[in-house]
Amino acid sequence: MQTTHLCFLTPRTSQFVKHLSHLCQLYASEKDHYIKLAPGLSYKALNPSNLESQNIILVLRVFDEKTITVLGSFGNATGTDTSGTSKFLNIILRLWKVLNVMSTDKGRRKRDSDMNPICGVDDQNVVFLHEMYNWLVQWEGMQQSGRVGCPTRHCLPSNIQSPRSLS
Fold it and tell me: Is residue 154 predicted with pLDDT exceeding 60?
């Protein structure tokens, strides 16, 4: 999160997300309030050290459904267009849900179809993973700043392709 002006091409549109700084603005606007609309956002979650950036709990505080919802209302209140950032956060959150299925009934218990295990080639989660993989390939081919770090750049496509190849 230390780089706040990244450029991401979303899978279904050709919109660019350029401002993860919207999250920093949201945090700054409510950091002194007792009741927070985005309780997961903290200074540590938005500005992790190298070691803390591997802490999945801090990462999930940024990619949280509450944070994404509040970001939209924050954008409306301040007159800032946060729709691109919200879409990007939703895509990454959905990717996390699809790849982090640990039991066969998780989707039913949580009432979230993205958490259902992959059952076949025509599964909606397989289609999403296929779109995500194509997006990563397209994004890596673009010539601009805002790249994923080298280890992640090599691991993420293979992690996305693995469930697709199993189904």
Answer: yes
